[in-house]
Amino acid sequence: MRILINETNLNIHETGSGSPTLVFMHYFGGSGLEWQSVMNQLSDRYRCIAIDLPGHGDSDESVPGYAVDTVAEMVAALAETLQTGPFVLIGHSMSGKIAMAVAAGTPDRPAPPNLKALVLVSPSPPVPEPIPDTEREKLLNGYGSLPEARKRLKNITAKPISDSVQNQIVADDLRTARSAWDAWLLHGSRETISERMADITIPIHIIVGSDDRALPPDVQPKLVLPYLRTATLDLLNGAGHLLPWEVPDELAAFIAKKVTA
């Protein structure tokens, strides 16, 4: 289903019923499909909504742009349009930073009063993400390349995944709009929103894979936790960066435990 938000059609995947609503966001170069296995395990208890962020999946390129606050405002507006009621926002990697911006509120939109908690999966920090210049250049130059997409897949996973999952990850990578790809690498990943993090008072539950090579586990205590006074950190041994694809059972159990805590 596609919904017009701020002149941009956003595609969503929805299943289940129950409260609170769980709103899922994906990683850079991914889509809401990464959450399908997790949502299948939670939909008997919760309404689950996964968003294709602008320029990703089946969503349109963003008309107003891709600044972190701009996308955060679109996510907050989408939750309001969908009448989620009380909801938990779940962000992965790139969208972890977006989730923090939603929870802190932006200069043009306050934090949603019905947002009850954040679950952040290997989140990008609220300060510039530590992407080496050589890696950033490689990502920019490798846009749209099938061989490079396959290399990226190997770099961000540690657990074995099926051929069908590998094919979906590569397909999502290749269908990401160039505008969204470049915007995150050149601007969004470099933005600083840390000055607003003290405004977040809801619980924040962070989980990372011990073998994450895209955002190594030490990024969280160094660049994330110092800014989030309500956050906790958990580690999944042996997992890489794509926890929803690699360990959906463990991640679904973690989310259910934190939502009911």
From TrEMBL:
Q: Where is the AB hydrolase-1 domain?
A: 22-253
Protein name in UniProt:
Alpha/beta hydrolase
* Keywords from the UniProt entry: Hydrolase
InterPro entries found in the cross-reference section: AB_hydrolase_1, AB_hydrolase_fold, AB_hydrolase_sf
Q: Which GO terms describe its cellular component?
A: membrane
Ribosomal protein found in the keyword field: no
Superkingdom as given in the UniProt entry? Bacteria
What organism is this sequence from?
Spirosoma montaniterrae
What stretches pass through the bilayer? none
An example of a Pfam family matching this protein is Abhydrolase_6
MF (Gene Ontology): hydrolase activity
- Keyword Mitochondrion listed? The answer is no
